[in-house]
Design brief:
single chain, 212 residues, mainly alpha, 434 Repressor (Amino-terminal Domain), 2 domains, two-stranded antiparallel ribbon, two-stranded antiparallel sheet, 10 helices, 4 strands, Repressor protein, Lambda_DNA-bd_dom_sf, DNA binding, Cro/C1-type_HTH
């Protein structure tokens, strides 16, 4: 078995499994026929278990060997696509309509979000991005365009909020719009705060090699 893996990341996952099971290095090692020194090397990222031991560790962690070596995928894109293809919205008049699915827009959005490390957006977040791309002709192709788009949406809502606030004060009436608009603005502000400062980092050089 020959593979290219990030041994530090694999070690961190192995350590997490061991600690979740409440085992010492020695107890954990006995399950694999390894001494505590070997387990320590795994956890420190010095080496990676061989195939049979990987299977045992993965089983203990209730995951596949692939997930143990490379981590669980942050997004289930098949499910995301299925949800987008079955998504609906409302017109200003309150009529329900189906949001069209555009493969190119989805592909660009998918690549953008995959390349932003340390941040995982929810299905609702992705629907918001996708719907804006479709309905507002927004183009999201990388981290910078995502941030620019979110900032513009926040600024747009800030302008609307100011206008509604001035109207309410002038007319001495509560239109009920302000709370709804604030909610929408805050949604985009939350997304902006979630993404900002999380630009893709250089990918750490992967280590190669397997151990005992």
């Amino acid at each position: 078995m020959k593979n290219t893996v990030n041994k530090k990341a694999v070690g961190a996952r192995i350590r997490k499994i061991r600690l979740e099971k409440g085992m010492t290095l020695e107890e954990f090692g006995k399950l694999m026929g390894a001494d505590k020194g070997i387990v320590s090397r795994w956890e420190n990222g010095t080496s990676v278990p061989k195939a049979e031991r990987l299977k045992t560790v993965a089983k203990l962690g209730d995951m596949t060997v692939e997930e143990l070596l490379n981590g669980s995928p942050r997004y289930d894109w098949d499910k995301v696509e299925e949800n987008l293809r079955d998504s609906y919205s409302f017109t200003i008049a309150g009529d329900l309509y189906s949001i069209p699915f555009e493969e190119k827009i989805f592909s660009k959005l998918k690549n953008t979000l995959e390349n932003i490390e340390d941040v995982t957006f929810s299905s609702d977040d992705i629907l918001t991005f996708y719907q804006d791309c479709i309905e507002r002709n927004i183009i999201i192709t990388d981290y910078s365009s995502l941030i620019s788009y979110l900032k513009e949406r926040v600024e747009e809502y800030n302008d609307i909020i100011q206008g509604v606030s001035d109207f309410d004060e002038k007319e001495d009436t509560d239109t009920g719009l302000l709370s709804a608009i604030l909610g929408s603005r805050n949604k985009y502000l939350t997304l902006l705060n979630k993404a900002e400062g999380k630009q893709k980092k250089p990918i750490a050089k992967a280590a190669t090699g397997l151990d005992s």
